[in-house]
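User:
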Amino acid sequence: MASILHDTPVRDDDASLAALSERQKMMQGLPYDAMGDFSLVSERLRARHLQRAYNEAPWPSVEELKAGMPANGPDSRMQILADLFGLTVDKIKSQNIYIEPPFYCDFGNNITFKGSFYCNFGCIILDCAQVTLGDGVLFAPDVQIYAATHALDVAERRAGLERAYPVEIGDETWVGGGVRIIGPVKIGKGCTIAAGAVVTKDIPDWSLAGGIPARVLKKIPPS
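Assistant: Predicted structure:
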């Protein structure tokens, strides 16, 4: 995994590290205590309750669709997503953020949508670091983003510490079914990531990438 190759040695007596909250450490790619910090645990629990509510929310009936209800359901259903991502219902609608359940993430508020977004069934985003999704990004079923990881160092893992690294996906990129994206990584604009790929390194703009680990198979003419 790309992320475990980015371990940065940190001294236990580093005063600047001691002054940081666990969330600050998490967002800076430093070792942090994910399970022992109450604020992080409570944030994750909040996200889990919202995900359960969204994943179990009923779909509109045919009669409701005929009466004009949007296919993604009433505002009450969209409000759950808005609460999860720290957005408003109007923002969810105007940006056309459409997520098929079930959907799972760690926090939700570390995911940024730069425009429209469609996500098919079974997506998992471990957003312990910032995850940025460009305008027009499409996810096929079973896409998983791992911005969370553990160190190669056994002592660090035994101490219960984790690390997190950001993921960015550029505008108009299509991510195929079953793709795994492992931070830190940036996928460029206009890319297609072939089904089943494991992305561990940056992918330049307008590329078709596939394989394990993913590599550029050919360039795509910009459009």
